[in-house]
Amino acid sequence: MEPHFYSTTDKDKKARYEEFLTQYAGLIENERDETSVMANTAAALREAFGFFWVGFYRVTSAEELALGPFQGDVACYRIRKGRGVCGTAWAEGRTLVVADVDAFPGHIACSSLSRSEIVVPIIYNKEIKGVLDIDSDQPADFDDTDREGLENIMRLMAETLYS
Ligand code: SME
């Protein structure tokens, strides 16, 4: 039986990320296929946290990200380096937490319902492999706890996939 990822509202968010990381380690430990692991990562994150849109953009050339596995509505295929929240997080090599996507210069609106967003680069050996992108239909839905929790998850995914 595969592990099941519950959204436990009786716990605070930090505890939910900690619990997720433990279960997630078991989910991915025996698989090295990038597409498969990204697909289950998006599904597990959606199941556990109920995200509006959660998925990956992968670095496929020096200039461009391409859409990877995701959960949510259809999304744009390509994002240039430095464009939108995803392309900016890639260019700057750091997590971006955007409280109001309409106030972010160059935000790429895949869904008109999106209000806030967090983008976490996937880094291995100082190389950026892609980004995790999460959108919310609520404003200011992401904070430092999400940033830390999601960075830990992406660190584990990168170590598992690329080492
Ligand atoms: N909003 C992102 C584009 C991807 S969609 O949100 C899925 C951006 O500005 O990079």
Report on the structure:
This protein has one domain (about 15-160): Beta-Lactamase (2-Layer Sandwich), CATH 3.30.450. Helix 1 runs antiparallel to helix 2 and helix 1 runs parallel beside helix 4 (about 145-160). The protein has helices at about 15-30, 35-50, 85-90, 145-160; strands at about 55-60, 65-70, 80, 95-100, 115-125, 125-135. The mean pLDDT is about 95. The chain has 4 helices and 6 strands. A hairpin with a 2-residue loop joins strand 5 and strand 6. The protein has a 6-stranded antiparallel beta sheet, sandwiched between helices. The protein is an alpha+beta fold and about 160 residues long. Methionine sulfoxide binds near residues 53, 79 and 86. Methionine sulfoxide binds near residues 84, 107, 108 and 135.
CATH topology type: Beta-Lactamase
Radius of gyration: 15 Å
CATH superfamily: GAF domain
What is the tally of beta strands? 6
- Contiguous helical run count: 4
Total number of domains: 1
Widest beta sheet: strand line-up: 3-2-1-6-5-4
The CA-CA distance between the termini, in Å, is 27 Å
Q: Give the class-level CATH name.
A: Alpha Beta
CATH-derived architecture: 2-Layer Sandwich
Assembly level: single chain
Task: Summarize the amount of helix as a percent range.
Answer: 25-40%
List the SSEs and their pairings.
Blueprint: H1 13-28, H2 34-49, E1 53-59, E2 64-71, E3 78-80, H3 84-92, E4 96-98, E5 116-124, E6 127-136, H4 144-162
Antiparallel strand pairs: 1-2, 1-6, 2-3, 4-5, 5-6
Helix pairs in contact: 1-2, 1-4
This protein binds methionine sulfoxide.
Residues 53, 75, 79, 84-86, 107-108, 110, 114, 117, 133, 135 line the site of methionine sulfoxide (SME).
